[in-house]
Design brief:
The complex is a heterodimer of chains A (374) and B (364). With 374 residues, chain A is an alpha/beta fold. Helices cover 29% and strands 30% of the residues of chain A. Chain A has two domains: 25-222, no CATH class; 224-374, Nutrient germinant receptor protein C, domain 3 (GMP Synthetase, Chain A, domain 3). Chain A has helices at residues 2-12, 109-112, 115-127, 144-150, 161-167, 180-189, 224-233, 296-324, 331-338, 340-346, 350-353; strands spanning 29-30, 33-38, 50-57, 72-79, 97-98, 104-108, 136-140, 192-201, 204-214, 217-222, 240-246, 249-265, 271-284, 358-369. Chain A has a five-stranded mixed beta sheet with strand order 4-3-2-6-7. In chain A, strands 11-12-13-14 form a four-stranded mixed beta sheet, with helices on both faces. Chain A is globular, with a radius of gyration of 26 Å. The model of chain A has no long low-confidence stretch (mean pLDDT 80). Chain B is mostly helical and 364 residues long. Helix content of chain B is 75%, strand content 0%. Chain B is built from 15 helices and no strands. The longest helix of chain B is centred in the C-terminal third of the chain and has 39 residues, at 325-363. The mean pLDDT of chain B is 86. The chains are: A alpha/beta (374), B mainly alpha (364). Chain A binds chain B through residues 21-23, 100-101, 126, 129, 131-134, 158-159, 179, 181, 184-185, 188-189, 336-338, 340-341, and chain B through 111-117, 170-171, 173-174, 177, 239-240, 242-243, 246, 253, 256-259, 263, 266-267.
Chain lengths: 374, 364
Amino acid sequence: MKKLLVLLLISSLMLTSGCWDSREIEERLFVTAIAVDINEEVQEGNVNRLIITYKYPNINTIGKNSGSGPINFTLSIPASGISEESTAFMGEAPFPFYFKHLKVIIFSKELLEHEELVRHILDELNRSPQINKRARIAVTEGKARDVLKVTGDQEYRIEGSIYQVLRNNKFTNRFTVKSLTDLITDFDVTGVTIVPRISIVSGKFVVSGGCILKNYKFLAWVDQNQNRAINIMNGIIGLENIDTIYNGILLSYTVTRGSSRKKVTFDDGITVRFDIKLEGYLQGYNISQKNLVYDEKTLKGIENNIAEELEKKILDTRKFLDEIGAPLFGVGEHVSKFHPKMWKQVKDNWQEMMPEVKFQLNIDVNIRRTGLTK
Amino acid sequence: MKKNETISNLQIRNLLITTVIGVGILSLPNQMVTILDNDGWIPIIFGGLLVIPFAVMLDRVYKLYPDKNIYQIGREVYGKFIFNIFMIIILMYFVIQDAYVARIFAEVVKAYLLETTPIEVIIITILFISAYLARCEIQVLGRVATLVYVILITLVGFLVLISLPDADPTNMLPVFNADFKKLPSAITGALFSYAGYEVVFIAYSSSDDKNNTLKYIIRGLLVVIGIYLIVFVITLSLFGIDQVKRQIWPTIAIANEVDLPGYFLEDLEGIILALWVVIVYSTLGPLLFAASRIFLNIFTTKSHDFIVLLLIPIIYVISILPVNVVEVYEKFGKVSNYFIAASIMGIPAVLFIGALVKKRRSKA
């Protein structure tokens, strides 16, 4: 009798259909990307100040016997917040949304002008147990929904190509990857953060440079060179190409590895020493019959040339950041962690003090290899 | 005593670990960081070490009265009436603690897994499952604890593994920078995370080698301290201080933070919660068992298994009393803290002093 009961119970497993919380899997819309825009047509007193665009894959096109149709759907709805319950037209989507596979969140610049809306959205995203907190953030200058629409057909199924680009910094330094948690933590620690900029160029999306946010508001755009300087100073160094002019000829140097260390001293005002170490190989210089680079002296010269060039870029970027009041080199965070007593004294007027902080750049460029030729 | 009615010291150790670690592990980093900022690990250590003297006292009491269980000792020292009052306090403690654990369990499961399931269903389900365990004898509990101990270690190992790639150890800094006037209140807070070790009061008398039981109890407490510390360190280094202060259950939020390469493992909180459910089960079961055992001894009924079923409605009603999650932690937590203080420290101390005085007198 007991055995029979056990057998019955086990065989009943075959009848379960793989639903969760009494919802079938094909009756969920797996949102992979969200774009948030300002609702311009909103009237006074209406809470639906946002237009949220959801992007979700067409499940029918996935799998062996896949049907035809668009790979992804996008749906734009006026709403007061991200979650589906706050959208104006509930029931517009055929099935409930499911946010655990959310990968990309795109904000429009227009939205970032409104601090209270940004705070609301970030709080909602952070509070929800549904939202994947590693979702990547990006900012666009135009309409955020356009970016999702442009990429609608390019993307391969669930794995979004925007996500692939935004995912890690292994191959480029031209923008700073930010996840939702990183963004919130940055606002907590210093109040300033940098988010990748995404734009549409001739029908395709491009990620380059960044958008500086300060106290939950838009502050400035930076181009990819400035963004690279910021990344190098923060020790975020991936495969990277640095072009300089050496003896009047273009020289390409590829960084393969690097590190950046800070040391702060308080003897005579605040001095920060950055020890930046780059390793890499020579990518291209100039073909000729003579050996142009294959001796120690020339290599040293090239290394110094690159270091000088980089130092100039970094100092330029620093000047720009000081002007707009965005301390992004992580000095404040470093002081708060390693010199907590000092931090108590300076933290209240840190941003005003920042331009007076002395920087000592110690850039060590190493060319480890010169490729196949001498 | 017959051989099959005893349990090994190793099982007692595992029983202690799995009973103590339950729902507290989810909110502990948040509570410690809220009081003491980055130095929250200090009260975790001190709170755990503070429990050890009371375990030693308990051991001494048992050594003074070999071959007797806690009820018999208590009655001999204080008389039946007074000791029954103590026992009723402990009984209330176990019932309230059980309700508290069941409620938080249900809140977490509802938030992360079963959004549309009513909370009452979740509570009743887990209570009935743990009643199934609580109706067994102590040996079964010991075996289940040993089984769950493996799962617990797996869970901790898994948490460490998935958080390693994104963790930033400098988030632990600065150390020794907090306001140490708050340390006592932080230690009291941490102490409540060690509630549940009282199950060894009852398990002790079933040990097959009482000479070494204390050693295993202390080892068990050290393991608990270790696990709490690991969880504290990984949550803090992953989130940074402000995010930990914000999260109600930072330990589960680790799963939301992880970004493993490829798509084969996503939605990791499913895995973490599945393991955690088993750990809560092994907290609720022994607590319910202890409650019913004490009930049995107060009212001298024949066996404890039907008492378990009697206690379930009471626990259920208490657990649904708080109207929202804030009330669960603020009010419910406070009430249960008084009982925890009484049973972690009060009962062993009172019993120890009473037993000591009585023995001295009878010698003189």
